[in-house]
Amino acid sequence: xxxxxxxxxxxRRKGPAAATDxxxxxxxxxxxxxxxxxxxxxxxxxxxxxxxxxxxxALVADLENALDAAPVGIVRPVxxxxxxxxxxxxxxxxxxxxxxxxxxxxxxVDGDAEVTLEANPSSAEAGxxxxxxxxxxxxxxxGVQALDDEALRVLGRAHGVAxxxxxxxxxxxxxxxxxxxxxxxxxxQTPRSWRDELERALAPCPTHVSLYQLTIExxxxxxxxxxxxxxxxxxxxxxxxxxxxxxxxxxxxxxxAYEVSNFAAPGxxxxxNLVYWRSGDWLGVGPxxxxxxxxxxxxxxxxxxxxxxxxxxxxxxxxxxxxxRETLDVPTRAAEALMMGLRxxxxxxxxxxxxxxxxxxxxxxxxxRLRRLVRGGFLETSRTGARTTLxxxxxxxxVLGELLSRES
Amino acid sequence: MTDPAHIRNFAIIAHIDHGKSTLADRMIQHCGxxxxxxxxxxxxxxxxxxxxxxxxxxxxxxxxxxxARDGRRYQLNLMDTPGHVDFTYEVSRSLAACEGSVLxxxxxxxxxxxxxANVYQALDAxxxxxxxxxxxxxxxxxxxxxxxxIEDVIGLDPSGALLVSGKTGDGVVExxxxxxxxxxxxxxxxxxxxxxxxxxxxxxxYLGVVILVRVNDGSLVKGQRVRMMAARTEHTVEQVGVFxxxxxxxxxxxxxEVGFITAGIKEVADTLIGxxxxxxxxxxxxxxxxxxxxxxxVFSGLFPADTADYGRLRESLARLHLNxxxxxxxxxxxxxxxxxxxxxxxxxxxxxxVQERLERxxxxxxxxxxxxxxxxxxxxxxxxxxxxxxxxxxxxxxxxRIKEPWIGATIMAPDEYLGGVLKLCEDRxxxxxxxxxxxxxxxxxxxxxxxxxxxxxxxxxxxxxxxYASFDYRIDGYLEGxxxxxxxxxxxxxxxxxxxxxxxxxxxxxxxxxCEKLKELIPxxxxxVPIQAVIGGKVIARETIPALRKDVLSKCYGGDVxxxxxxxxxxxxxxxxxxxxxxxxIPQEAFIEVLRADARHV
Lengths: 408, 602
Fold this sequence. Notes:
The complex is a heterodimer. Chain A has two domains: 1-10 and 344-408, Arc Repressor Mutant, subunit A, CATH 1.10.10; 24-276, TIM Barrel, CATH 3.20.20. Chain A is 40% helix and 19% strand. Chain A is built from 17 helices and 15 strands. Chain A has helices at 52-69, 93-105, 123-126, 129-135, 149-154, 161-174, 191-202, 221-227, 236-252, 271-277, 308-318, 330-341, 350-357, 361-365, 367-375, 390-394, 396-403; strands at 24-30, 80-85, 114-119, 139-145, 177-184, 208-213, 256-259, 262-264, 281-285, 290-293, 300-304, 322-327, 348-349, 379-382, 385-388. Chain A has a nine-stranded mixed β-sheet, with helices on both faces. In chain A, strands 10-11-12 form a three-stranded antiparallel β-sheet. In chain A, helix 1 (52-69) packs parallel to helix 2 (93-105), helix 2 (93-105) runs parallel beside helix 4 (129-135) and helix 12 (330-341) packs antiparallel against helix 13. The longest helix of chain A has 18 residues, at 52-69. Chain B is built from 14 helices and 34 strands. The longest helix of chain B is centred in the C-terminal third of the chain and has 18 residues, at 504-521. The chains are: A alpha/beta, B alpha+beta.
């Protein structure tokens, strides 16, 4: 059974008790981009001028406040710090330094912590890689998105293929751990053209890649175009073929799927994201960042002001960008544990689910409903937990719909 | 009271759009019934739906005071009859209240099937007929051709045909004069016991039920105790009046006169069209001939698209029923569509009118199941059953035979479309009984099973004739047919709302179409879903919806979890409107879409 024995990324640090600790992490959101991509619904904004120093102070203040406000027992040495966005590679390296310094002063960060920064593969940003490295970043996640110039143009990306390839090489020189993202099932793409593109992407032997099927999100330009019928996306069968192709090619390149869209060489999994998927504890600081703190009863969700200006004002006036905090009830905790855990190949552990839901998965979902999914080949269950099969992960929305459709 | 010798009661027979209402407006104007400032377009059609569709649903009368060239004042009662095939019986009662008819034909269009059927009804009622050719002001008018057509097709002598224009008013005086000269006055004995025909009735929020009457013998006065002979009820007359077209008190209606009464009646269903009204203390020994209780011929399930609207649908049906006793409704529960009503209608147009009024006046979104006719099911134990809902058909082993209603249909179409029309009728098990020509227009008579007509016939006829064919029918008895119940199974379980009774020869194609539509409209599920059309235990058509292969949940990180969870909750809320078939759940919308597609006959 997949669950628990050697959960990558968390187990090796501490004693046996920590084997089931999904870990503690810090997420820092940088909300600015040079331009807004037509598919992206993240909290990102385009601003003419950004006062880097003011933002550095505010992010550090928001972090200090979040640490102070966290319930007793949550704050512990971090498994990971993640600078996401937006485009954090537009952020001054001093901000990374400021955030890591604040954690270090409290003894929360050591040499083992994973520190990831998201970056765009432009030459300007590649020029700052060494500075980020010096500030403490040890893992870079690069938004390549496509290895096709026309596709990059349609996706609204500022870079070209050659520039992206150079940026990835530069990143690999500066950092031990580098990952990059690609988007597939784009308009006009075929399973064959995606396979060729993927082959090129895997040729330099990366150790981690995130490969996303294009999703059409509400409120984006792609959504409007799609609604008008101007975006001819590959059909379901082609999308399925591309997904299967993706898993097969990655495996051949030594990258195992460990989550719906993430592939890694052994031990190279993104520890930060594993904290999310294993329903760990994380602080979210910066505009629009979400946090989850506490296991089981009393688990709280925090949300920070989404608008950069509103958040900045709140931090500067009240010392914190917190907009709302709520305690999560059983159905919410159970839903999140399944939504996140079943994305992972390792699945959701029985112990974790019970901690969150106060009941076993079978009790919660219903024997018959669970059995239908197992018989259908979507799910595997054992005493230690439940996990999706490849087939189940391909239709995870529908599987979750089935699991969570009980009246409660 | 007017001397019957100075009364003329007449109806106007015309096809939709041939200008009946406009001509009536001109007649009212000429006789001073309304001041010019009170005139609005088409005074007679009072419901929105009547104005828009040019269909008269309720009969109305207008009493005109016309001073003829002979210097005498005549009382002319114009009877506006309901103008559609579904209201054949109602039309026959309106015509029975008159001695003559004006046959009004658009001189740019010519005779249509509906006109023909109504003229035959008028002839059945022994009417004297005055022919008027309308719209002679139009450049496209061909009065000579149309007159010839009237002779060819109907067999009436067109030599005295009048040329009129409702638009300009030309010929209106001539027409009024001809009505006085040519139509006979009513006969009747004003001293005999009261004998009056209940022509039509409607609900008025202030007056209660208003009853349109034609007095044959005796007289009707305020305060009189009257008996409805078929309904076996008694009432006291509260008001006696006429429409000019404004409502006016008359105090009394004598033999030969047409007008209205009110009698403290709350529901239209308590007044039977065609009933005989007589004096309770001095009743007539014999009622008027021709009364028939109203009987729905087409049934359909009406369901609210939003299940929360069930209560509102029930109230709305009850309110419509106040004014339309011709339709019947009772609660029906469908596994696929939830709670709704099984409703009976006088015909397809009647169904459409009720549906449209529910949607428009009561703001309801409706799902309508395939219309079904009433079958006579003869059981092996000797019993019979009137089947209104295909889902209720007993087990085939209990059925000895099934009889279905047939109609006599008249179709008129330009001859270039005749081939298509004949093929359509043959495909629908039709039997040709007549085929004649008038110029380049063909008149075909067919006997057809009604269940072939309720499904898609009108639309097909329109499409094979590019809209030029006109169609009319009357119910013409029951005949045994090789009829079977076809059920649709989704994942092995029947979908009640999709069951139909169908002739064996058409079952396979109907079944195949239905399965194909369902395959198109049901979203892919985690499991593959077989869709079958079956008769008895035998599968006659089959499709399979392949299992879902890939859905899109590409990313979910710390910041997305709340939002994604809310999406899933929305998905879950949507499941409340899902129907479970074994291990799959099908959204109710899919069935609604199939029924809509079926109604559109794609």
